[in-house]
Each structure stands twice: as structure tokens, then as C-alpha cells.
Design goal:
heterodimer, A: about 300 residues, mainly alpha, about 0% strand, B: about 375 residues, alpha+beta, six-stranded mixed sheet, five-stranded antiparallel sheet, 20 strands, disordered N terminus
Amino acid sequence: MKRRPLPPRPLIVRLVVIVPYVWFVFFFLVPFLIVLKISLAHTAIAQPPYVPVLDPSSGWSGLRAYLAALSLENYALVVSDPIYLASYLKSLVVAGISTVLVLLIGYPLAYGMARTPRAWQPILFTLVLLPFWTSFLIRIYAWVNILQRDGLLNQVLLALHIVDEPPGWLASDTAIFIGMVYSYLPFMVLPIYANLEKMDVTLVEAAVDLGCPWWKAFWLVTFPLSFPGVVAGALLCFIPMVGEFVVPDLLGGSESLMIGQTLWTEFFLNKDWPVASAIAFLLLVLLLTPILVYQRLQMRAAASA
Amino acid sequence: MPTLPAKPDISGRVLVQFEDVLKRFGDSAAVEGVSLSIQDGEFFALLGPSGCGKTTLLRLLAGLETAHGGRVLLDGQDLAPIPPYRRPVNMMFQSYALFPHLSVYNNVAFGLRQDGLRRAEIEQRVVEMLKLVRLEGFERRKPDQLSGGERQRVALARSLVKRPRVLLLDEPLAALDRKLRGETQFELKKLQQRLGLTFIIVTHDQEEAMTVADRMGVMNRGRLIQVGTPAEIYEQPNSRWVAGFIGDVNLIEGRVIVLERQNILIESGICGRLHANSSVECNPGDTVWGALRPEKVRISSEKPGSAQENCATGQVIEVGYLGGVSIYKVRLAEGLVMKTSLTNVARTLERAIGRGDRVWLTWSPEALGVLTR
């Protein structure tokens, strides 16, 4: 089939198309390149706290000297030191388990919302969004309050005689998981809800009519069709969870740190900007890889269809 | 009494039975007091305006809805305790409800897989069914890569492949364009006769129902109004509502003055005395309605001689030329407008009768139906 040439687009349309690219360049690409540059420098007691610093007035020789002073030694340090590796690993494990937990809780929630009579859905939708009306930091401090030894959770458990001694919740991985699941639940619920809500329920009826019990129809029809929503929700949760700082810092223990905390330590306590930048850059690569692989698979599936 | 075509050749054994079925949605009854028997091998049409409960009746049989009263039986067995996924009944949905994530092959194979059939048998039956609906070579396509007509055939194949005792078709042709719909109606009829299966079709299109069905049931507001062959429904409607819903009709109100076996004399006021020949039950003095189909009225610009026929005179107020036939609207003396149709047998560009002409309408006593409600 021959494609007709597109008519020339008016200027305003082209400008609108450019806006996201401008945004991307100024708020992602430029800061990213700065971070990359710092990650190749050495720490120094100076202002800014690293060398070399590019001096435009020094000309070509200055640039050559500048480039020669850059090195990959920060990356070598981060990759070889088990503290950093353990930190990365802990982040991935915590984020992975939390994402699974959020999915297990969020999917039934989204499913229930989508199957509620249409008149009630806006109310449920608002309820899911309601926590965002309070600052994230304040909500996590509220959890500190709830989870402390004489906090609300233990009071309830004691009153119901579920426990005799108040257990310590704070400063543990359990507290991190509670905080993570609580904080990221809406990010899982909303994309799945959006997906299930527009699904035609007669598809499930058709499956049942063809001899499929209801629970099996869910696995053969509903779940596969909502899978794009599940993937979107999982990415929206997993990626920020890996770099999460507030939740592990306020609720978690000090025996092992997530990568966000390690980065914070390098940056603010050790004042080692280059190593902190290398950590950040490697984290980005780590997170970008699965997204790119997923997109590749998606494109291949679309092309083969 | 007009002669009717013989009843189609079906087993005479009742397969599906609705007994005083009631189904409510909220406070309103979607289906109420419906009793109906459908025979094995029959092509049955449920016809009615939208919202009349015909689809609900179909869904009750499929098990997708639960009745609040009455019983639904298949082969004499009450279906109430049998979940929809165990009923030997399959449905073709109005939206087709094809699984968008599965290929044509997997859509058709879906039902067979649920029965745990062997791979080889599934393949053989799917291939055979795709051949039957002329979709060979489409196996690997996804539903969104098919045309409307192709999707319709996949949906048909998917619901037929399990060889159900009853195939339920919910407005199966509504999404097709007019020409394709006409062709598909005849194909559906041929398919049903070839397979010898019982088909129940739900439609709001009376032509479709009359084309495909052996018998049909006319529904309105949750109730079954009349059941019969297409000819029975058209020629002997049991009420003004059915007469008006199926085809065009002229209704002339009057009072029975003489009743002699099947010869009824009606005093109508507007058209004078009308002779009718009908077996309908009525008594002298009853208010009745003479029902006259437009094609059963003769229209002429000359005054007829015979006094045996019913006759009325008036002025043509509108002419509609439809190609094959022309429709004339004639206003009678007292303001009643009668609709008549005339087949255009000659290739003339001018009609013999035009707007404003004075005309005489005549019809035989056999052409005039008598309705009591």
C-alpha cells in the first residue's frame, strides 16, 4: 500500500510536539550529563568538592588536561566494594518483594473497583487518591508513630490479646515493607483499574459460556488482558522503590542500607560527590535495562502480530 | 380463512421449555410470565423492540442470568442447578466477544480446550469449523485484523464448534451492513438445516426473523405476546400491537353487528359496513378493529362495480416511490389515512395515480383481519 505524504503541519502543532523534548533535554539529559561528568572526577577539599573543574578560559590545552584527568576509578570502587554491592542487592530485593506485595493487594482492589456499580466508582477512585492530599513525609512519620513500641498497632494487638508483649516493629525490614506497600499502593491500583475498567465483561461471559468456570475465566481472559496495566503498575512501583530513601531511613534499621541511603551518606556525610554520582549513574543503568528489554519485547510482539 | 404454509418439518419433540419465567432487574420485571416450548431442530426467533426482554430470556437459558421465578428446562431437565459452563448450550454474542489476545484458531479452540479434548481432535474440529465458515487461512490472525463479516464468522464458528444442543444467537447480524446481512441470513438458515441443530435467534429486525425462523415469538415489555410461524404472525396477528409491530397495517375501528359463523359484519362509521372473514372470537356489539395490510388493498381511479367487496373512497395525499413498489397514502372522508401499496409492474416513468387524485380502495373480506384487542 502506498502511503500518501502527510500534509505540512502548522507551526503550533510542531511547537507542541517539541515541548516534551525540551523538557527531556533540560530536566533529564543535562542534569544527567552533569552527574555523569562528576562521576568521572576525583573528590577534593575545594568548592565544588571535586577536580577537575572545566575552565573555559584555558582553551584547547585546558580541555585536553581536563579530559586526561577524568577516570573510571569511582566505578571501579563502587563495583569492587561489597558495601555498595550489598546495598544495591538489598534495594533490588526490597523493591522486588514490595512490588509483589503491592500487586497481590492492589490487583484485587483494582478488580473490585472496576466491578463496582459505575455510580460508586468515582468515590472509590477518590478514596485511593485521598492519601496524596497529605505530604508523603508526614504520612511516613505517622507510620513511625503507629509502629513504635507504644504505638497504635501494638495497642490494638494488646487490646485484642493477639500478643502479650508488645513486639518492636520499627527499625526492621518488616517496617520497610509496610511503608513501601502503603506508599506505592495507588501507583499499582490506578493503572490496573484503568485497564480493567475498560474491559468488556461479555468476554468473561463468553469464556464461561464456552465451558470455563469463573475462576479459570479470570486467568484465561481477564488477567492476560489486564497484563499491560500490571506491567505499568509494577514499573511505577519498582523503579522509585529501588531508589527510595525516606521509607527505609525513617522505618528501617541501620544494619543494612538501601542504595538511596548509601548515596545520601556518600553525598552529605562523606562529601564524596564523585562516588555518589557513580552510584546514581549505575543505579540508572540498572533500572533502565529491564525497561528497555521489556519495550524491545513489546515491539517484537507488536511487529509479529 | 387464508391458507397457510404447512408447519416446517421438525421432530415435534420439545427440547427447550420456559415455564412461567420471571426475571427482575431492580424493581422492574425484564421478563414476566413467559411460557414457551421450542422443539428439537427448530429455528426459533425471539422478536421485539429493544428492551423487551428477549435477550434476557436468551441469557436465562445460557445461565448468565438467574430467574426469580419459573423454570427453564432442557430435554425435560431443570437447568437451575447447572452452572453456565456446564450447560450444553452456546451463545453467539451481539458484540461477538472475541478474545482480543487470542488468534482466530485459539478463539475457536477455546471451548474445546475446556473440555480437555486431545490436541489432534481439537485441531481437526477447529479446522473443519473454520472451513465451514470459510475462514481457512485466517487461523493466525488476531480479531482486530479482521473485517466485521469475518469477525462475525469467527464468533459463529466458536459457538458452533462444541456442537451445542442449542445455539443462542443474540442479534448476530446487527453489526453487518444491509447487503451482507441479507446474504448471511440465508447462510445461517442453510447452516442450521445442514447441522440439524436447534437455533434460537434474538433480533429486533422483523425481516430477519421471518427470513430465518421456522417459528417466532413476539415480545413486548417482558411478556410474550404471540408465538407462531412467520405467516401466522403476519396474517393472523392476535393484537393491534403485533399487527403494527410486524409490517404495516391499517386499523379501522368498528362494532360487530352481525356474526354468522366466520362471516363478520362490522359497522365502522368511517368506511361504512365492512365484511370480514375471520375465525376470531367475538360477539355482536363488541368493539373490534379491522386490520388491513397495505398490499391487500386494491387502488383504482375508477369506481368499482361489484358490491361484494369492501370499498372506500378518498384522495391521494402522498405517493412514495420505492422502485419495486409504490406506497399511496389515501385520506378517507372522515380523516382516516389508509396506506396501500402497489407493485410497479410496468416500466413507465409516470404513475397512473398521482397526488390529489380521487381513488377507490377495495379489499376482499378475506383480506380484512379482525382484532379484538
